[in-house]
Amino acid sequence: MRWFECSLLVVFLVDLLATTGDLTLSWTSPIYPKLYSNNTSINPLGRRISKNEDAWLGSLLNFGAIIGPLPFGYISETFGRKTGLLSIALPHILSFLIFAFAKTIHLFYVARFLGGVALGGGYCLYVIYIAEISKDCNRGKMSLTINIFCAIGNFLPFVIGPFTSIFLFNIILAFIPVTFFLLFFFLAPESPYYLVGAKKDKEAEKALMYLRCKDQNGVAEELNYIKSFIGMDDQGRLIDIVRNKILRKSFLICLILIATQDLSGFCAITYHLQTIFEATGTRFRPDLSAIIVGVALLLSSFIAPFLVDKVGRKPLIICSCAGMFIALNLLAGFFYLHDRNISTKSIYWLPIFSLILYIVFFNVGVCTVPWTLMSELFPNNMKQMTTAVASCFGWISSFLVTKSFHDMNSTMGRCGTFWFFSSMCLLCGTFSVFYLPETKGKSFSQIQKMLSATSETD
Predict the structure, then answer these.
(1) Domains contained in the chain, CATH given
(2) Quick one: signal sequence residues (predicted)?
């Protein structure tokens, strides 16, 4: 067995947890129609939910995700990356079980919040663990496998939710984090970087031997590199970001990219995908339209992992922003005509085409590349802290957008809402052209030297 087969197995197990996380994102799409139903055999609440309850049900996930990086980041730093990832599975499992048996809206709120806490913690830790068990030559591909499995997570609710009860739907979903917990506990090693930092060199050596499927001599050079890299780092502090020009620049870049994930409307669109299609009044069935978009989400997730280490991070981000800008403008144009009672019969296909285009280009770059950059642009002593803070910032943006989605539609019109999302894509794409560095194929130390050189010329 060659080295990459062992590490690839472990990466796929982490990806299974990423699948669980993104189940929570599109979970609302098939659930909202059931909760708006007056049929008590479909709706366990026994009544229709209000628009305000709709908003809270969607946004509480994001509120939980704001908090998630803090406790799980602490667990990861104190007890290890593996323990941190295992602990994330527990609130996911509890969340789905509460959904399955809940009879009141407040229990739904609790479950959404718990799922959000786990989701936020996961996005903070996935890429750090994968980056630390991967080799420099394939770190980008390994990190972006997360994109594929996140897309599977987004896809499954579209194809299961409309055709099952709320109880059965959530019981099925709970099996995924349970499977991850059992397999990861027995098959995954601790991160070699964490072990070296914790002065557990022998355990780090064993972890590398397992991941690379090599003997002691085969991992000696890489182990020495990790020791030297960890040895260069002092304890990182949040104030260092303000004082250090390189860290400040890297942090600003990551904040803008991560905020664009949410300000481009992804969560708001994903949560309300089925109801968005209902609002278009086209001849396509809303549930089938959502499934088609889900298929596009799944298939397009395979693009970035094959391109990220060939094309590079920067071109993918720029291309992604440009494509989303076009797609959102097409959708906004459709709603502009539809809401003014101008016939849209000849372009009934435009909403589904626009959303497929949006999803494809979102997956090409903006979806996952920012998290890959988070694991690459910072030294090891700052990585956990910066990822946690940036993740919180991103989920705050997502919470605000999701909570205000209905209000935006009311005040700006649906066309105005999607024009706002498109303008955020344009701003991010323009920023990336001038300021985003390329980290393709570079080691952690080479990236730090490159950032140092570019900062001196600014």
Answers:
(1) 3-188+232-457 (1.20.1250.20)
(2) 1-21
